[in-house]
Every structure is written in structure tokens, then in C-alpha cells.
């Protein structure tokens, strides 16, 4: 029943019933008033015609014949009108596809216009009624009342419904009015004038010179004559110079916004006020350059520290791994074998963490060689899935590739992109719900190739997607699974180095990763080897030539 009450068809039917019943009740009430005034219930039609010869006979006859049904019609009309209006008030602003209040086209019309039309018509009808003009004698007044009542009923109902909708929306009631817009505009103008005056008072140290100059100029123009002409020419030069200096400041600000920190503004011939502003911009450029240099130095030192420390760790770590391998060959039993197994697992985990840390540092600082070439993304994804086939089986996962049948080429570095896919598949093997599928979709949109990977997480993903791409953040908050929390961060950095974009989306337990690269055309096939030119049939082999001719051919060749 709720959906039925919000449908457009029901609203139209209710509006029609409300207008028709309202007009019927209005004229029926007028009819009852006239019937009582002319004593229709105690006099015959002939007596009424003799007593009131000035009345219209046809209208008098019709009204006299309906005198007995006027009251029931009035009651039924008022009942229908009340039911339909109450229904429309409840349904105003509602739609069947949403529970929110939604304004329609008529609710966007300024409310002032409704009242500007409804009020004059209402006053005109009320004036005719209060004036006492008899509609049974004055057919012109009756026609105006009929037409005006129909228009008033339609517009009045529309005004009532839009007012109810606007009230349900709150501030919408007064915001969509011409009066509100005019008051708001005037208020903004007053606020702007007040703000300008306050700014002038605050900056009196800079504006007093302009005020004095303006008074001097006004005095010269008051005197007129040759002095005014000279002053006008001087002002033209001053204004042109000011415009040039402002343009120079504007160019300097635009260059700073573009990141050109080496741009310097020439402030030698500027007015003192503009010169101070130009020096401030130059100081900002210098400060930015110093801060950027320090940041680059810090990043370089951090990368160098990570690389050196990782290298120093790898040397003893390699020895530990080698000696653990030797101990495993001794066929130790009992707890000793378990201890060796733990040492082997944790040492290799530490080695993987060290390698990931170095790679993350290099990828984030761009210290990796990037060789972009047209690469079939479907073939690359198939190779990555084939490489991880055993790990996927151990994790009870099935990889499904969609869109790999049609070759889609992107301008990427094959080695770096394979590393990205490797990190995503490794995450899927670690964190996916067993006995589910990992979907890899490849498609082309406009000038890009999009590779997406979707899997269902085993654990609840209560971490924002942006936070998952930070360093040392893992989807497994308990940290029971192996991993460094660097895989997604490395993937994001590697994709950025290839001028692509990397993004994540989380919908409940559904994890989705999107890798976007610029699309390109397939590489041109290698050129076929040109067949060797056949020797002319009349050519003689060198060994069969006479000595003199061989010498001539050799000299020609030289």
C-alpha cells in the first residue's frame, strides 16, 4: 500500500478528485445559500418566477430542480475532497523508488510566483461574492466566478502541495523564493562593502598614499587646463607601468605554482609596494628550493642507509642459511630437527623481508631501470598464473582469466609488471578464503588497458583501501601469515614508475585491485630477410678472370 500511494498515477487521480470535489462543494454551497435566500423549499417555481422576474429562467429552473440533492452532494464532495487532500499531503515529495523527500519540477519554481497568481484571483472572487452581485441575474459575474474557481482550485492545490513538500525538506521552503534571493544578494553586497571598508582601514599604512594622490589629482582636474592634460598623460604612464608590474608578479606566481623554483622576479624598477611583494615571492621560491633539496637529501640518505644495512644483513644471513642447509643434511631427529626447521623457515623469511625492503626503497625513489615496450597483458597474466599454479593449488584457489583471449597490448616494462602480478597473486594465496576463485579481468577502455584482480578475503577487511597500500600494513591484523606488508606498496610504486595507476577497492570481504596502463598498438613484425641479389648470368667468377681484369676490378672496388 505504501508503494501504491507514491505512484504518479495515484497522485494524478487524487489531484483530479480533489479539484473536482472542491469545485463541486464550492458551487454546491453557493447553491444552498441561494436556495435558502430565495426560499426554494417553501415556494413553487411559478411563485418564484412571478416574485423575481429579473432572474434567469433557465438557471432558476435548474437550481430549483436540484434543491433536494444539494445537501447530499455537498457532504459527499467535502468527504472526497478531504480524503484526497489528506492523501496528497501524505504523498507530497515521496517517490516509489526511495524513502527520501525528492522535489519535483514544480517545487523548483519560486514560491512567490504561486502566491502572486493565487492571491489576486482569490481576492477577485471574494470581492464579487462580498459585493452581493447575484449570479442568477448577472451571467458575466457567474462566468468569471466559475472560470476563476477552476483556476484557483488547480493553482491552490499545487501551492498547497509544494508548500508541504518544501516544509518536509526544511530550508528548501524559503530558499527557493525570489524574496530570499533578493535579500541574500543585498546582504552579500552589504557584506562586501563592509569588508572593503574594513580592509581599507586595516591597511591604512598602504592606502593613505593612494588617498593623498587621489586628492592631488582631483585638485588638478578641478583647475583644468594644460596641467590636467599633462597629469592625464602622466597617469597613463603610471597605470601602464603598474599593469606591467602586476603582470610580472602574476607570471611569477604561475611559475611557482607550476613548480619552477628557479624563476626569479625582477624587482628593480617596481614600485615599493609591488617590489616588496616580488621579494616575498622570490623568498618563497628560495625557501621551497632549500626544503626540496633537504628532502631529496634525506630521501637519498634513507635509501642509502636501507641499502647498506640490508647488504650488511644479507652477508651473515646467507651464511646462516647455508649452515642450516648443512645441518638439515645431518639427518637430526627429535626436537633438533624441529629447531632446524624453524631456523630454516625464519631465516628465509628474514631474507625475503630484506629483499622486499630494498626493492620498496628503490621503487619509491625511482632507482630502477624502466624499459617500456608493447606487451600483451593477457599473455603476461597467464604466465604469472602458471608460475603460481602450485601455490594456488596449495591454497585451494582457482585462477580465472577473463579477456585474455584477445591480445591487449600496453606500454609497460615486462619484468616490473610481472613483479606487480606476482605480489598480487602472493597476497591472494596468503589471505584468500580457501575453495574460492581468483578472477583476473583484462579489458580496454579508451586509451588504457585495465587489469583487475578480485578475490574473497579469509579475514574481515576492516582496513581502508588507502591504508592497505602503506608500508608494513597487512590485511591480517593478527600477523599470523607470512609477509612483510610491503607487497602492495611495492606494486603501487612499480606501476607508478611505468606511468600507470594502481588502486584498491574493498566491498565487504571482496578485495579488488586495479592496474591501469596506457594502451598501445601491437609491435610491428620483424622485417623479412631480403634475398641475396642473384649474380648476372654474364658475370664471371673472380677466380676465372684474367689477371689484368682482376686488377681492374680490384682498383674499381678500392
UniProtKB/TrEMBL annotation:
Q: What is its EC number?
A: 2.7.13.3
Grouped into one coarse class, the protein's main location is membrane
Positions of the region Disordered?
Answer: 521-558
The residues that cross the membrane are 12-35, 69-90, 111-130, 142-164, 211-240
Spell out the molecular function terms from Gene Ontology: ATP binding; phosphorelay sensor kinase activity
Keyword set includes Ribonucleoprotein? no
State where the protein is found: Cell membrane
Kindly give the membrane topology term recorded for this protein. Answer: Multi-pass membrane protein
Spell out the SUPFAM superfamilies in the cross-references. Answer: ATPase domain of HSP90 chaperone/DNA topoisomerase II/histidine kinase, Homodimeric domain of signal transducing histidine kinase
Q: Which GO terms describe its cellular component?
A: plasma membrane
Keywords (A to Z) from UniProt:
ATP-binding, Cell membrane, Coiled coil, Kinase, Membrane, Nucleotide-binding, Phosphoprotein, Transferase, Transmembrane, Transmembrane helix, Two-component regulatory system
Query: Which stretches make up the Histidine kinase domain?
Result: 308-521
Q: Which InterPro entries match?
A: HATPase_C_sf, HATPase_dom, His_kinase_dom, HisK_dim/P_dom, HisK_dim/P_sf, HssS/ArlS-like
Coiled-coil residue windows? 336-363
Superkingdom of the source? Bacteria
List the catalysed reactions: ATP + protein L-histidine = ADP + protein N-phospho-L-histidine
What this protein is called in its record is histidine kinase
Give the species this sequence originates from: Anaerotignum faecicola
